[in-house]
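Tutorial, part two.
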Amino acid sequence: MAANEKDTSKELLFYLLDAADRLETIQPDEIPNIDLYMDQVTTFMEEHLKSSCRHSDDKILTKTMINNYAKNNLMPPPEKKKYTREHIMLLIFIYYYKGFLSLQDIQSILQPLGEKYFHAGHGKTVEDIYREITRMNDDRMENFREEVNDMEDAAADYFQDAEQSEKEFLRVFSMINMLAYDVYVRRMLIEKLVDRYFRDEDPGQVKNQRRKRKTGPAPDSER
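Running the prediction step on this input gives:
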């Protein structure tokens, strides 16, 4: 939606909340109980996560991406070319993470999850964890709506001395920067948690090791 000077504060708020409401969470019971081939996996993900795409022709996951995830130990390989419910759940985690974390960070988080809980014979399973995380995310959405409402109110407190013709632009710009700063801080906190709890190596040492590798990280199109 292009900037529209006729938008009121409430119209902008409703636009953002409507966009958030259209984001779909894949509930555990929506994931098929049968194993899927690659084409079925990509179709399932497209159908359930399309609303999160910015553009209509954006791809959720491609075959190349999924093969790359298995090759890089972000999830266990398929079983006889088929993917189980737990594979799908790990792919959903990857989809959410890949927008702001490196493949190496995602591997650090998900590889131990797969090793300990994937097809676990006793105790918790990947499905148990996915169900609880989904419930947590659904609860967080209500908190997010309140945060967006507060943010829209807070944006009006800044640039009060601006010309009337500038206020709409500066209000939207303020909200973009509030959200950007939130993303910046939260990504930094995630990276700190990954470095402290999921990696034995020093982050600087890991960075130097990356530079020595002959093959670089996967292109964005393969992530």
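Residues 17-218 form one domain. In part three we will examine how such features are distributed along the chain.
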